[in-house]
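hi! just following up on the protien thing from before. the input was this:
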Amino acid sequence: MLFVAALLLISVAYASLSPHDAATDSVYASNNCDAEVEQAKAQRSWLIGTLVGSFCAIVFLSVLYKKERDEEKRLEDLVKKRTQELNEQNKLLESLSMTDQLTDVPNRRSFDARMKHEWRIAMREKTPISILMMDIDNFKTYNDNYGHQQGDAVLQIVAKAIEKEAKRPGDFSARWGGEEFAVLLSNTNAKGALVVAETIRSSIEDLKISLLADGSITKVTVSIGVHTLTSVQNVSSDYFISGADEALYKAKKLGRNRVFTYNT
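and the predicted 3d structure came back as:
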């Protein structure tokens, strides 16, 4: 492109000479006229100067153009980088908004989103779905006896114990609120849900929780309510959850540290 521009400038410069100028050499040869020689030299100098100036202008413009392109690319790369950083920050904020900050497990908002997802699958695939609602027994008394810092430690330990046992791809555990937790079991019948619930109850009962104050061992237990639907047709998720809540209430009423299944 620059080469073509240079040729164009040469052509223009050469064309700007008068017709008499093109015959300068022949005039010089035939007449040996000093004036004409000087004129020819001046015209050649002008032509060379014009070409050199044009070339320098082209080089300058090409350098300027390259700098502008480099600056545009730098700005484009900067925008891409800032956009990527913003997207990562948004993802982090979204993750934080879906995570319980104390226990580092999914929170109620996250559970509600997962419930909608699994509910649609159960409706489309006509598969069973189960839910476990559980509560740490006598947690208020534990808090009063050992302090809120120890109570927070218990919540963290219990949350991880539940998460460890709800380990299948379709299992989803979350902190429901306070000392209450929930586990959603996709494509799981009543028998399978009962097995998972009993496994969680037993594992928490076996925990040996050290006191922050002196390292002595304490124990906690959980009560669990189970509700299974073989079909979600013509029922609501609110009914599904309320059944598990009612079963949890029965488990506590029967003495705590037990699993109770809701019967429709």
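The first helix runs from residue 2 to 15.
Residues 108-261 form a domain with the Alpha-Beta Plaits fold (CATH 3.30.70.270).
cheers
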